[in-house]
Amino acid sequence: MTITQLKYVLAVAEYKNFTTASEHCFVTQPTLSMQIHKLEEELDIQIFNRNKKPIEVTDVGIKIVTQAKTIVNESSRITDIVQQEKGYIGGEFKVGIIPTIMPSLLPLFLKNFNKKYPEVKLVINELTTAEIVQKLKDGHLDAAIAATPLNEESLKESPIYYEPFIGLLHPKHRLFDQKYLKPEDLSMDDLLLLEDGHCFKESVLNICSSLVSQNPKKFALQSGSFDTLIKLTKEGLGMTLLPYLHSIDLKEEDQKLIREFEKPHPAREVSLIYHKSGLKLQIINALKEEISGIIRGLIAFNDVSIISPLKLKN
Fold it and tell me: What are the beta bridge partners of residue 49?
């Protein structure tokens, strides 16, 4: 039995197809199939039912797959321990970031992080929260940045910063002349939101949980873009809420349309998320330190009220 054979087993269990699994393992399909067959012969059991389409894991195979995940993770820990002992911060590091955070956060820290840690190769993917959770559990991500809490037992959440919500209003909007916004002032009738599936929308709905729409909008909006919401707001079609970091790069004329909430400022918790197995902690800590240091100088809100997503989505 080898670690390589167990990795092949995990790949087939995930993709339910030998060809697809071999592609992700960067080996030929015959090589992967032969190694798994040798393992089944050694154990004198069948891990996969090859007569099913897609391939199914047998009952005993399910137990083997569970144990294989533990063994493969623990084998990776040996290399990780050595690297930590040597103080080495390098190697490939796979990070997932949700769409409502990635565009505003990535430009702030990526260049400095690459310069400070040239041996680290960041592989960054824009993913929904649900995709992030699954990929962290499957070992396809080393860490992720998303709105929390997620309440996933196998994952750790290390808060990096708390990002306030801010309002964007047209000059003729009924709330424009107010110095500060209040959640109870908002109306579902003129609030422009992201499409379903975004946790930022769920957080906004949490702020507005006591509000009921009386007059349905004259149009239906399905957009995953803050830029679209901003343009519609400037056309006088409603108001929208934005994460604070997204407002920093707005044009000067658009900055005048911003209104903050009164204290405590509604905010979302943004965390670095990783598996409890704790691999590559030296890179995780370096990433958190770098982001926290930059954000500390940008977000000066000390009094915030954390608004969590209502359900696990994006």
Answer: 56
